[in-house]
Design a protein that fits this description.
- This protein has 13 helices and 23 strands.
- The protein has helices spanning 20-30, 47-66, 80-83, 87-93, 119-129, 174-194, 241-246, 270-279, 305-322, 343-353, 363-368, 390-418, 427-433, and strands spanning 34-36, 43-45, 70-71, 77-79, 98-103, 106-114, 138-147, 161-171, 200-204, 216-223, 229-239, 249-251, 257-259, 261-268, 296-300, 334-336, 357-361, 370-375, 385-389, 420-421, 451-456, 472-477, 497-502.
């Protein structure tokens, strides 16, 4: 990965307004979310980063099962002959595929691809398993890693190997497959907004930007603090393309043979990158309570050995009371930091890690039956540090965490809404706007560059005009205005399609 030697030892976090890219990397390394691996373009996800991923994974997996999906696991090696069955698909992934050509001391007769995605191998097995309409639908998901040989990498956002989930389903009708595609897109949206506090635009990808081999691709697009877009999840209606290439046919209710319809959908560890660039600040991470590895961190403040037993007994009693509370309908997650370090150092470490609530408890707090409450979201404000009676804190802790979750989403949504330009109506205005560089969007101020919601003629050739400005059409939102205007790419009049234009990660 870029800048490995320079960033090996991070002593402080670069401010966002000084260098946003460096700030992002500093936050990751300083908070020990991941580290650079001794393999080109790969990362090692450290315990705290993986714990956040586990929380996201758990929330996703719960919803997958609620919508009738089952988890499976497929091999990471895919024969080249399977990839070649779907020409458009293999062409789209060819530059990124890593190949295994030798096993032990023997050269392989057929190259094996290290899984870039699994449509072809899933479809190969579906062709074996599906015989009649009674076998349908099959709705499988797998949690795994994939390999894509990226030229430029950045932790979580784009790495050669990354963790993800990929759902692959097969249906008897196009309507059922399309319904599945949209259902999973909205599952992703619900988790993004209600769990990770990431407001997103949802819509259809343009023909140029759709998944290789798909009939249609749908995505959710989040705005980062520098105004760039992050594609946070995709869902693909594959039609019969993969079914025909893999010969997935079945006997329908009319006793006729026909090809099945398929869908696929996935999210990855880039969601963690999205959480960082949406919520973190110049002090480090700010983690939404729903995905925080620890929602409450308790730091004992012990200045001499004589106080230790009294303080720890008080903390353990408080922990027992707190564990009876259930914010978001789940058992509360608590960490008591008993390490032999200065309490102030432990406080700042957990502040950098973004723990939603940090409690500092010393002899005086015990004597007065209080807790010192520090909320990460309100760091540096009068409300961010308060002394609360123990019983009051216990009684209101669920409400406190739920309020923090809502406020984090509201803050991110306000930034998104403020920085979506809808007043750019001409090609000239569009070009002048994107002539600027992306910078950190300062609180309460509009960024120099963020999202533009404007008109597009629908001509796929016109998207080539965006390359020079390093812009893409992020999606065609579902909530179309129904109005006409000037295409911002070509200047043609009477363009009807509303799209989101932005630079992206």
């Amino acid at each position: 990965m870029a800048k490995e030697k320079k960033q090996e030892f991070v002593t402080h976090i670069t401010p966002r307004d000084e260098d946003f890219s460096q700030w992002y990397t500093d936050v990751i390394l300083k908070t020990e979310l991941c580290d650079y691996a001794p393999v080109r373009g790969c990362m090692i996800v450290r315990p705290y980063g993986y714990a956040i991923w586990e929380r996201i994974q758990a929330e996703m997996d719960k919803r997958f099962k609620e919508t009738g999906h089952q988890n499976v696991y497929f091999p990471m090696l895919i024969p080249e002959s399977l990839l070649l069955k779907e020409a458009e698909h293999v062409e789209g992934f060819a530059p990124e595929v890593a190949w295994v050509t030798q096993g032990g001391t023997e050269k392989l007769q057929e190259r094996l691809a290290v899984r870039p995605t699994s449509e072809t191998i899933f479809c190969t097995m579906y062709a074996k398993w599906v015989q009649t309409w009674r076998d349908l639908p099959m709705k499988y998901n797998q949690w795994c890693s994939v390999m894509r040989w990226e030229k430029a990498t950045r932790p979580f956002l784009r790495t050669s190997e990354f963790l993800w989930q990929e759902g692959h389903t097969i249906h008897a009708t196009a309507e059922e497959a399309q319904e599945e595609t949209m259902q999973m897109l909205h599952v992703y949206q619900e988790v993004a907004e209600n769990v990770m506090a990431l407001p997103v635009y949802v819509g259809q990808k343009s023909e140029k930007e759709k998944f290789a081999g798909a009939r249609a691709t749908y995505s959710m697009e989040a705005m980062m603090q520098d105004g760039k877009a992050l594609q946070a999840g995709t869902s693909h209606f594959l039609g019969q393309n993969f079914a025909k290439s893999a010969n997935i046919s079945f006997v329908n209710k009319n006793n006729q043979q026909e090809y099945a319809y398929t869908s696929s959908w996935g999210v990855s560890t880039r969601l963690i990158g999205g959480v960082i660039m949406t919520h973190a600040d110049d002090e480090g991470m700010v983690v939404p309570p729903k995905i925080a590895p620890y929602q409450i961190v308790i730091v004992p403040v012990i200045k001499n050995d004589a106080d230790e037993d009294t303080v720890m007994e008080y903390i353990k009693g408080l922990q027992k009371e707190l564990l009876r509370q259930a914010p978001f309908g789940e058992k509360i997650r608590i960490k008591i930091d008993k390490r032999d370090r200065k309490s102030v150092d432990k406080f700042w470490e957990w502040t950098r890690k973004g723990a939603p609530v940090i409690l500092e408890i010393g002899p005086r707090d015990v004597a007065e039956d209080n807790v010192m409450v520090k909320e990460r979201l309100r760091l540096g404000t009068p409300e961010g540090k308060t002394v609360v009676k123990r019983d009051e804190f216990v009684r209101t802790v669920a409400e406190r965490l739920e309020k923090l979750q809502k406020e984090m989403f509201a803050k991110a949504r306000a930034r998104l809404e403020k920085n979506v330009r809808i007043d750019i109506k001409t090609k000239k205005e569009f070009e002048e706007y994107f002539a600027n560089s992306n910078v950190w969007i300062e609180e309460g101020k509009a960024g120099k560059v963020a999202f533009v919601r404007g008109k597009w003629s629908g001509d796929p050739n016109s998207e080539e005009l965006l390359k020079a400005m390093k812009i893409t059409i992020r999606c065609i939102p579902f909530d179309q205005s129904g109005t006409k205007g000037e295409c911002l790419l070509t200047g043609k009049q009477d363009a009807e399609i509303d799209v989101i234009y932005a630079r992206s990660y």
